[in-house]
Every structure is written in C-alpha cells, then in structure tokens.
C-alpha cells in the first residue's frame, strides 16, 4: 500500500497559482489519471509526489510521511526506493545499451551487478523486447523506447510510478499497444500509478480513478463513469462532451 495525500497544497510562481489549495487522496494500487487542459497544473501536481517541486504552502504526505520533513538522506532513499518516473520523451541514456538503461536505476539503488543484470533481463522480457538487450536507444522505434522506459521504472520495484504523458508522442496503434502493456503489468504488480494524460479515450481505457484539474484546482474526482454520468459542474460536462464529439 502506498498512500499519497495532498493537504491544502498551493504552488505559486509569482502571482500565478499552478496549484491552488489542493486537497486530494490518491487511491493505492490503482491507475490514477490526472486530466485537464494544458496549463491546468497536471505536471506540477505530479512533480510534488517525488519532491522535484516543493509546495509554497500545504503538505504532501506519502506513506504516512510528510515529504517536507525528510532530510537529504531520507529524501534520497525515498526517491530511490519509493517512486519511479516514466517520461514523455523516454529519458533513455543514448550512450548506454538497452540492458544498461534498464539496469541504471538498479545501479543507483546499489544493486549488485549480477543481480541487476538478472532483473533487467527479466523486465526486458516482460515488455516483449528480450532480443534487444544489446541494441542502443537510437536503434529503437518510439514505442520500443517507451517499453524500455517502462521496464526501467518497473525494474526499480518502487510502489509508486509517475507517468507524465508517457504515450502522447506515439502513434495511435503503438499507443494502444503500450496501454495494453501497462494494463497487463498493472494487473500483475498493482502499483500506485499516477498517469498524466490529455486524452479522454486513454483515461477511459486505463484509469481506475480520475482527477480533473482546472486552473490549479481539483474540479472532480471519481471513476471515469462518474464523470460521464454525474459531471460535477457545467465545466466537467463541457470537458466530457469533447469525448462524445
Ligand atoms: N517554472 C515555472 N515558472 C512559472 N510558471 C510555471 C512554471 N511551471 C509551471 N508554470 C505554470 O503553471 C501552470 C501549470 O503548469 P503545468 O505544467 O503543471 O500544467 P500542465 O497541466 O501539466 O500543462 P501541459 O498539459 O501543457 O503540460 C501553467 O500556467 C504554467 O505556465
């Protein structure tokens, strides 16, 4: 179980409030989709969960710990053992082979070479690329690169996965394939996934729980069906209409 709780979190850049007094509980062991228009605060929210950003006011609690109270060593441990990230543009290291890219997070965690090679091979197989261990990122398609990004994140065995529009750079067919992969892995491993997306179809397909942001505020939370059947405000109704159109 890995609880994530925002308690009255505001993140201000000058007069702009990227997050505006957010209070939110993200359910454990589920895929939580963060939706909203461009600039609504999705990435800012995500980056508070691994302390890449600090709130201007309020608190973020993960697994019963106030992240603001972690000292440097505890924060380093938290980042290594508790959260992994999958990036929109993959974030692979171009000078490292595929297997070394997957091993990278394990190396940072201090896992011994033999053990990390074994784990990396396991995850390479899990994402369907067992024949590509010695390829380099430049030899792979976008979809294959993101499979490696996913393998690297899962290999770290952290309970929380942060995914910032991980499939938005991919064509629709590849994107569907990656969604299926994530759903299959999630069935098996039950991570607490925080998945930022603009795409309503994607959210409908993969989410267990949805958070809709607008101008740094939480407008509605619930299942995707809740959004369709009981939109909380006229704004939500309009937002969901774009799906029907
Ligand atoms: N470092 C920063 N300095 C100033 N303003 C920022 C900074 N980072 C984000 N913002 C502003 O905060 C608001 C929320 O940004 P954020 O990137 O979280 O939105 P988003 O919903 O993830 O957008 P997108 O879908 O376009 O990625 C935006 O108005 C953005 O311009």
From TrEMBL:
It comes from the Bacteria. Keywords: ATP-binding, Nucleotide-binding, Transport. Residues 4-240 form the ABC transporter domain. One of its GO terms (biological process) is quaternary ammonium group transport. The keyword Metal-binding does not apply. GO terms for molecular function: ATP binding; ATP hydrolysis activity. InterPro entries: AAA+_ATPase, ABC_osmolyte_uptake_ATP-bind, ABC_transporter-like_ATP-bd, ABC_transporter-like_CS, P-loop_NTPase. Pfam families: ABC_tran. This is Glycine betaine/proline transport system ATP-binding protein.
